[in-house]
Amino acid sequence: MDMLVKTDHASNPDISAPAPAAPPPPAKKKRALLFSLLGLGVAVSGAGGYEYWNLVGSRFVSTDNAYTAAEVAQVTSEVAGSVAAVNVVDSQNVKRGDIIVLIDDTDARIALRQAQADLARAQAQVIGAVSDVERTRIDLERREALAASGSVSGDELTNVRNRASEARAALDAAHASVALARARVDKAEVDLGRTVIRSPVDGVVARRQVQLGERVQPSTPLLSVVPVNEMYVNANFKEVQLAKVRVGQSVELKPDLYHGKVVYHGVVEGFSGGTGSAFALIPAQNATGNWIKVVQRLPVRIRLNPEELAAHPLRVGLSMDAKVDLRSNS
Fold it and tell me: Phi and psi (nearest 5°) for 60?
């Protein structure tokens, strides 16, 4: 007879109960933690990036393609002559009106004396013409009085009238000669004054080419004077950066010369009329079949603070970092 036997697991230690689930391996824990941190980092960086763009990126545009510039004064000779003296050297500071070059004035002084003599002769001719006019006037008045009584013929009266007219014409011509001679005197005086060449601006002498004893002609370049106290910056921004840049906005500038330790505060003064490539010696021809689009740069002129410039002098062509505050408007 079959018997039903009830098995008691608790009372039989040899029979095992189902085992609990094993803990995940350490590598899986690390991977899960890594993905969690990565997701958190992405979220934080996204929020931080938004805040950066909202507070900084959308407010400023910057470029390191910026250089100092100035309206350099080109000094040239305005008269022909030999150089008698050169009073300056390259890098020397000069003030407006300082004598920098002297041209031998011998020829100019001779030309002035000749012009003065011509003027004196022309003035003497005027005096003689005035006398002729007065004499012929009196003679004409007498002849006209006698003509009424028939004592003077018509031909004689006509001749006297002609002489009076000729005298007045000679006087007009003499006056014109005086005016011409006086203009020549003025020209000679100006040429004499131009033998003394003065600095047109305050600044620093650069590119001195003139030498003592050299024979120069009008328009011969002698040297340049750089007005270092009136320098500005040409910042070459990419065209995609300029949508919100306006005249009058504030600019922060850091020159490489002072290793970024000096900061200038400038103002946007204007925009160039074209990009650098448009004014290149050989402009790019975009109608070719192998054309590749290149982002262009437009020079932006930035005025520097004169007090900061005086405290920390600059020279033409130095590199700058420029950052425009798009929310400012000086």
Answer: -125, 150
